[in-house]
Amino acid sequence: MTNPSFIAVDRNFDDLAERFEKNISAGGKGELRRRIIRADIERVLGSRLRCLNPPLRVLDLGGGLGILAIELAQAGHHVVYNDISVKMTERAQTLAQEAGVEAQISWHTGPYQQFVDADDAPFDLVLCHAVSDWLAEPEALFPALSNLLVSGGWLSLCFYNPAGMVYRNLVRGNFRFLDKQQRFQPDTGSLTPPNPPAVEDVNRWLAEASLDRVCASGIRVFSDYVLEKRGGLAFPEQVAEREFTYATQEPYKWMGRYLHYMLQKS
Description:
Blueprint: H1 17-25, H2 28-45, E1 57-61, H3 67-74, E2 78-83, H4 86-99, E3 105-109, E4 123-129, H5 141-147, E5 149-160, H6 162-171, H7 175-179, H8 199-208, E6 211-219, H9 236-246, E7 258-265
Parallel strand pairs: 1-2, 1-4, 2-3, 4-5
Antiparallel strand pairs: 5-7, 6-7
Helix pairs in contact: 2-9
EC number: 2.1.1.-
Catalytic activity: 5-carboxymethoxyuridine(34) in tRNA + S-adenosyl-L-methionine = 5-methoxycarbonylmethoxyuridine(34) in tRNA + S-adenosyl-L-homocysteine
Organism: BD1-7 clade bacterium
């Protein structure tokens, strides 16, 4: 379980915005994550994504660069964007302007806690990707998400899988690190969350918030663990296709460095 004293405050990515865009969002990792998330949303919502009578009311909470929010706005849905980072919000607005939909998105900058009672709520679909990993009190996020949804509304939740860090250390032979049960201490500017909640805790908090899981996928289920890029591993396109194929398959999906859930409010 997350130790609130370890993450004193919710993480603001103002100092990491450029690095995040360059190393994650604009690269293969970011595109793979979006591809898997898009597929899960399509699998669950189906034709409702293409029905604009009425359009979906969508909230992208902790929206980062807002790429999926922009895509949903382009599809004609009513989109609200929120992020604690001013720099992230400004960059997302630039991308939305380039896509011709800046005016179609309602922009909010600030912590999600200030957004819970927003006039825009409730929503049909909430996107919440890699937010809980960086909060001082992640357990408080899930009832807030539930309150932001209409009855029967959908939550797209993406979060870091701590088991991936353990497995990575196993295959790299870092046994002393594991024996000492040392807490991961990322370098300054690291994009790896220092103390993400255990999957078991996330599942329990979701159940307590009346959010029922409909499907689950793993993001980066094998490529992050590779030490030697031989054979097909030397070809990024082939790796991406295999990652996409195994993202939804048991038991491989549970080894993803990130997990993506589609949930429905009961």
